[in-house]
Design goal:
355 residues, alpha/beta, five-stranded parallel sheet, three-stranded mixed sheet, 37% helix
Length: 355
């Protein structure tokens, strides 16, 4: 389970109190130390850094917000409805120097999670960024938490943000075969794609699902919130994307329950786009029409369900080493500042950053 929120906040406050001159002088040592520590994982480092930061060409970083490309519709090669990304826009990011990455201007979560790594870089460096749930494309290379999974979406450079809410993994002591034979879900139902699911399955005998958001929104589906521990008594757990990704996905995939969900359309640092249907989760079709058959099948095919669960557990483990994840975050930023022409990097970094 994740650490208490006050511990997370306290760590962020302590980092903010350390003069940036100290951490900036530590950058070269810290990078060299971590690259030596993980020298046997250079192939993995390269693959993941280039997954998060897909940029390969140099670009010019403006110094004025007005010089960034404007918002405009995007229409190329988008999937048809009911895909939730059948309509997308190119949206303009924010622009500033790292010195101005402060608590008051960013909010606690995005400030703490970016400052953990930006404090190692020179205050005068410019960066573009968008700090909220991103389910659109970005008109200029920018740091963000989430991005639509479509071909050539290179401007959205992912950093591990909002990790207190999203990067929660658990230890589940209940065996799959000892759990209840129902699909369980508690979540806020505001989005069209979640509403469609509830309209279809709220009264199903195979489901125990409920809306736990605003009481004035969809009161017919309203149920009380329950702790994660109560979710774990069910064999089947539903993961439906929200405004961007599904915040319950990480802990479900680390549990002994079978995750049922449609193929992800938005991704974060968790690399949702690399999850394989029916290998890491049971795939629900985009119209939700095969839910009954999935549940009935895995009720009786316990071995196959447990194989998927085991694969999901293994997938989650790649994110458990905080030092390794920290190295990747720093290298994603290094590549961003390097390609924007603001810093130089070492030969080993150039090799890591190339495809």
């Amino acid at each position: 389970m994740r650490e208490p929120r006050f511990i997370y906040n306290l760590k962020g406050i302590i980092r903010a109190l350390i003069p940036r001159a100290i951490t900036q002088n530590m950058l070269e040592y810290k990078l060299n130390h971590l690259l030596r520590k993980y020298e046997k994982k250079l192939d993995t480092i390269k693959q993941r850094v280039n997954y998060y930061n897909k940029l390969q060409s140099q670009f010019v970083m403006p110094t004025n917000q007005d010089d960034l490309p404007k918002d405009e519709p995007y229409t190329k090669n988008l999937p048809p409805y009911p895909s939730r990304i059948c309509y997308l826009n190119l949206i303009k990011p924010d622009l500033d120097i790292l010195k101005n990455n402060r608590y008051k201007s960013r909010g606690s979560v995005y400030y703490f999670d970016t400052y953990q790594w930006t404090r190692y870089f020179n205050d005068s460096l410019y960066w573009a960024f968008l700090f909220y749930d991103i389910n659109q494309l970005i008109s200029f290379p920018a740091i963000c938490k989430s991005r639509p999974i479509i071909q050539d979406n290179n401007n959205s450079v992912i950093l591990q943000l909002d990790k207190y809410r999203h990067f929660q993994f658990i230890k589940d002591s209940i065996k799959f075969e000892d759990k209840n034979d129902l699909l369980f879900f508690r979540g806020a139902v505001y989005q069209e794609h979640r509403t469609r699911f509830f309209e279809k399955y709220y009264n199903s005998a195979l489901c125990d699902i409920g809306h736990v958001g605003n009481k004035d929104s969809n009161p017919q589906w309203l149920k009380e919130k329950v702790p994660i521990k109560a979710h774990l008594t069910y064999k089947f757990l539903l993961s439906l994307e929200g405004y961007d990704v599904a915040s319950n996905l990480k802990w479900i995939l680390s549990s002994n329950s079978l995750c049922i969900m449609p193929k992800p359309e938005i991704e974060t640092w968790f690399m949702e786009g690399t999850l394989i249907p029916n290998i890491h989760y049971a795939e629900l079709d985009i119209n939700y029409s095969n839910l009954d058959s999935i549940i009935e099948y895995y009720k009786t095919h316990t071995r196959e369900a447990k194989e998927i669960i085991n694969n999901a557990n293994i997938y989650c483990k790649q994110f458990y080493d905080k030092n390794f994840e920290g190295l990747l975050n720093m290298l994603v930023l290094r590549k961003y500042f390097y390609l924007s022409g603001q810093i130089d990097v070492t030969n080993i970094e150039r090799e890591l950053f190339s495809n």
